[in-house]
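Retry 2 of 3 after timeout on previous attempt. Resubmitting structure tokens to design endpoint.
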């Protein structure tokens, strides 16, 4: 019985993509410098397992259609347009709940990420300990799309903006 190959979409997880098509690793790495971190075995086991191509596009500052279609083209899948999974992780205007006086914790995940570690466990722990109304300020070198999606699914409110090459995300419990 032949195994059906994976059809690449914005919802495809990076780990399953590279398992089905290992030859796409170099293509993916060439699309954005941010993807080079996936060569790190620790991040490969953690981030690649949970991050979708939609999230990877946000991390790599790419349009999801361009990313997905480039990968599809490499393996002979038909290009597709108009994926409806477009998400915007960055916002221009501060939400009404964001107030500097409510920031109770600040966490710079950049050193851990740059050393090849995954801050997901630490971030989840910190936000679970927030009291109502408190805000965690999270600093990362790229849009932390997987953690944003995970926390939104758990009912947290998140606002992210890019400032001088870093991303600041503000996380609070929904009231």
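Retry 2 succeeded. Sequence:
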């Amino acid at each position: 019985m032949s195994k059906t190959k994976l059809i690449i979409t914005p919802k495809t997880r990076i780990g399953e993509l590279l398992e089905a098509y290992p030859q796409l690793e170099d293509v993916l790495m060439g699309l954005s410098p941010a993807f080079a971190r996936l060569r790190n075995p620790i991040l490969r086991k953690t981030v690649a397992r949970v991050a979708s191509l939609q999230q990877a596009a946000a991390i790599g500052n790419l349009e999801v259609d361009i990313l997905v279609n480039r990968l599809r083209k490499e393996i002979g899948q038909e290009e597709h347009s108009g994926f409806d999974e477009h998400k915007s992780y960055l916002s221009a205007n501060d939400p009404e709940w964001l107030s500097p006086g409510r920031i109770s914790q600040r966490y710079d995940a950049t050193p851990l990420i740059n050393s090849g570690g995954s801050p997901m466990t630490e971030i989840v722990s910190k936000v679970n300990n927030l009291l109502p109304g408190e805000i965690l300020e999270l600093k990362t070198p790229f849009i932390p799309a997987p953690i944003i999606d995970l926390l939104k699914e758990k009912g947290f409110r998140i606002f992210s903006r890019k400032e001088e090459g870093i991303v600041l995300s503000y996380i609070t419990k929904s009231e």
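Attempt log closed. The mean pLDDT is 86.
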